[in-house]
Amino acid sequence: MEETATPYELPDTANHSFFFVDARIPCDVEAKLHRHDAWELLYVTQGHGNRAAGDTWQPFSAGDAALIPPCMLHRWEFAPDSADARGNIGYLMVAFSHAFVTRCTDLFPEVRNRLAGTAFPDHALKFGRESARTIGRTLARMNGMDELGRLSEMFRLLPVVFTSADRMFAGKPARTERDVRRMQQICTYVMRHYAHPIPLDEIAAEVGMNRSAFCTYFKRCKGMTFSRFVTQYRLNTACELLEHSRRSVSEICYMAGFNDLPHFVRVFTAEKGMPPTRSRKNMQEKNG
After folding, report:
1. What is the DSSP string of 35-79?
2. CA distances from 197 to 58, 59, 194 (A)
3. Under a CB-based contact definition with an 8 Å cutoff, are residues 35 and 7 in contact?
4. Fewest 10 Å CB contacts: which of 122, 184, 214, 255?
5. DSSP 8-state class, residue 130
6. Between helices 98-107 and 147-163, what is the axis angle to 10°?
7. How distant is the alpha carbon of residue 277 from its chain centre?
């Protein structure tokens, strides 16, 4: 059964420039696939899972921050076992219209000067560790402020969100909602089976296509082969495990779906520019 995309609107826009929320909720009540006419900046405080943004699914964990552009279909799917002792996941989020950004640049030269020449993205972004920390600290400060204080913090946030250097691609708009739902089905299958081989005939049958049609369709939607997509997902999973677990590199190799340690090290090094052990050390040093 195909999932229906839900439209959302910002509440009480007549009296508020933007929407802020500190959410601590059971993961089973989190929003499903949806869209809204606003930028969404979300910082994860508790939990991990997978984020759908346009045509892309990526893993996320506590401490991650991402920006979803207006009108992009998206969802945050938290793993039930990542909830806290009370069964809740958590995030801090602000949603704001693009009109808010343009009004700020029109009214305040200080904001306009900071955003001068900025090209606003039409794809989703994930922030690097330093920018994510800055975003998290700013949103946490907002939580204890009145509305005027939060507005002041938004002026500080806008340059970070739109001009920080450590932003990474996290999804582009899909052509149709049907593409989004089909790609979601493909990605969900990969997330459930990435630890084992995924034959092309098997994944093609999962979405009701033959092998040739599936390869053509996937390359058109994602700009890469299905094999490369699976490899990238496995590498991203390996990076999450390297950063957030104490498991050995050999254990992570097999947990991430690579069945040969030397092959895993070669692929990881070619893609990330360093071997897994050095990558883990770098991440540990950055995280203090």
Report:
1. EESSEEEEEEEE--EEEEETTEEEEE-TT-EEEE-TT--EEEEE-
2. 19, 19, 7
3. yes
4. 122
5. H
6. 100
7. 25
Tell me the pLDDT band of 12, cut-offs 50, 70 and 90: low
CA 208 to each of CA 48, 62, 167, 213: distance values in angstroms, whole numbers, following the listed order: 30, 35, 36, 10
- Label residue 2 by pLDDT band (50, 70, 90): very low
Assign residue 49 a region (left: φ > 0; alpha: ψ between -120 and 50; beta: otherwise).
left
Owner of token pair 């800055």? 134
CB 238 within 8 A of CB 59: no
pTM (2 d.p.): 0.67
What is the residue whose two structure tokens read 């402020």?
Answer: 145
* Residues sharing a CB contact under 8 Å with residue 208, sequence separation 6 or more, in sequence order: none
- Beta-carbon neighbour count of residue 166 at 10 Å? 11
CA distances from 244 to 63, 248, 253 (A): 11, 12, 15
d(CA 265, CA 277): 9
Please give the distance of CA 80 from its chain centroid, rounded to a whole number. Answer: 18
